[in-house]
Amino acid sequence: MSNKILVLGATGNIGSHLIDLLKNKGADFLAGTSSNTREESHHISIDFADVLSIEKAMKGMDTLFMLMPTHPDMVQWGKNIVSSAQKSGIKHIVRLSAAIAKNDLDLDFMKKIREIDNSVINSGLNYTIIAPQFFMQNLSTLMADDYKNGTLYLPAGDGKLGWIDVRDIALVSMEILLNPEKYKNETLTITGTESLSYGEAVEQMNNILGKNTQYIAVPDDAAIQGMTEKQFPPFFIDVMMDLNHATVLGYAEELTDTVEKITGKKPISFKEFVINNKSVWS
């Protein structure tokens, strides 16, 4: 049976790993990107605000990997993608969501994620929702400079997170994309094996890296002021505050064995992640 795969969000942290995995498997796929400068045969340009470009990319595709950027227009973009999938004959949508969104939290960002998820679920198409916990790579990208500078200031209290490495998210995604019928109409929460607060994560990093970085839990107003002074966009600030509120409330600490069940291997540990990325914080 034909299984031509279209991967949206192909150039990000998860997407780039997923593309490499699909290539190694010899999968029949296209990588949808927002750039029209890519000349590789596996890539096609997509504008989430342009339904015609989405439909063009989906032509002849069977399975869709729906990874979307966090953006003020994300709900409308999600609806554009789903409606295009319905028109274009997509048989199965694999939607990358977020674990904390499945809880009925009255937070704007979580509502946006759930609205997109519901668009997929109610589309009439087969679907699989992949719902990962917090990415380990946030510490090696968004928070790398803060760690190197000696202090992580976050309004996350002592809330714990079920950290997951994006390489495991990509591996789970590949397995589902290659065998979509096996995971038909399921929502799968994926996490690592340890639930760690930011303080505990920083302590592990310090032990491995020989650093003395501190985690300081700050109040909301201080966090908002700090991000505003760094000229972060208001939408980004709102998203970060919602994520930290969910963490404080205990909605990010869940652990599952989904990675091992689907891939046959244990998730990458937090210690292994830090060792693999030592050079980032040196």
Characterize the structure shown.
The chain has helices at about 15-25, 50-60, 75-90, 110-120, 145-150, 165-180, 200-210, 220-230, 235-250, 260-265, 270-275, and strands at about 5-10, 30-35, 45, 65, 90-95, 125-130, 150-155, 160, 185-190, 195, 215. The N and C termini lie far apart (about 50 Å). Helix 1 (about 15-25) packs across helix 6 and helix 7 crosses helix 11 (about 270-275). The strands form 3 sheets. A 7-stranded parallel beta sheet has the order 3-2-1-4-5-6-9, sandwiched between helices. It is α/β, with parallel strands linked by helices. The mean pLDDT is about 95. The protein has a domain at about 5-130 and about 165-190 and about 255-265: NAD(P)-binding Rossmann-like Domain (Rossmann fold). The relative contact order is 0.14. It has 11 helices and 11 strands.
Tally of separate helices: 11
Poorly predicted runs are: none
CATH superfamily membership of the domain at 5-132 and 165-191 and 254-266? NAD(P)-binding Rossmann-like Domain
CATH topology of the domain at 5-132 and 165-191 and 254-266: Rossmann fold
CATH class descriptor of the domain at 5-132 and 165-191 and 254-266: Alpha Beta
The shape, in one word, is: globular
Write down how many β-strands occur, each being a DSSP E stretch of 2 or more residues. 11
Strand content: 15-25%
Spatial separation of the terminal alpha carbons: 49 Å
**Order of strands, widest sheet:** 3-2-1-4-5-6-9
Structural class: alpha/beta
What gyration radius follows from the Cα positions, in whole Å? 19 Å
